[in-house]
Amino acid sequence: MLRNALGKTFRFLGYTVQYGCIAHCAFEYLGGVVVCSGPSMEPTIQNSDIVFSENLSRHFYCIRKGDIVIVKSPNDPKSNICKRVIGLEGDKVCTSNPSDFLKSHSYVPKGHVWLEGDNLRNSTDSRCYGPVPYGLIRGRICFKIWPLNDFGFLRASPNGHRFLDD
């Protein structure tokens, strides 16, 4: 009887470890569901919206300008932030705030991206902490899941004029 109970317990633990490893790999390499908080991505993503983030793009270096990404915060590594990619390495970006009279520009260094929130007046982003290392990107947001009336792919940046092509 004890032998039977031990056998069932070890089988249960074995299945738990197996499924735990599968779940870890799925969330780490494929993607997962993310709840976004804060006003920095409004109007594209509202506070408490639920989105799906895929993680394959970051592994294959397929992040492009205009993508919305989940990134480990450069200010607090325990938290994640959600921002739009404005510039990739080598791109010229506007580093000043929209309200600044004189505009300043810089180039994104190798291995970095320039991130900004869609709500430029209420976003802590690369304009504050500078270019972000590519390695801090956790995933790329594909589409919005909740609220249901807004289900689908995300809209284009309301700040398209901040993308520089020279």
Automatic annotation (TrEMBL):
Active-site residues, record numbering mapped to chain: 40, 83
Cross-referenced InterPro entries: LexA/Signal_pep-like_sf, Mito_IMP1_subunit, Pept_S26A_signal_pept_1, Peptidase_S26
Enzyme Commission code: 3.4.21.-
GO MF annotation terms: serine-type endopeptidase activity
EC class of the enzyme, as a word: hydrolase
Family designation: Belongs to the peptidase S26 family. IMP1 subfamily.
GO CC field: mitochondrial inner membrane peptidase complex
Domain of life per record: Eukaryota
Subunit architecture: Heterodimer of 2 subunits, IMMPL1 and IMMPL2.
Boundaries of every Peptidase S26 domain copy: 16-97, 104-146
Transmembrane segments: none
Protein name: Mitochondrial inner membrane protease subunit
Subcellular location: Mitochondrion inner membrane
Gene Ontology biological process: protein processing involved in protein targeting to mitochondrion; signal peptide processing
CDD domains per UniProt: S26_SPase_I
The keyword Transferase is assigned to this record: no
UniProt keyword list: Hydrolase, Membrane, Mitochondrion, Mitochondrion inner membrane, Protease
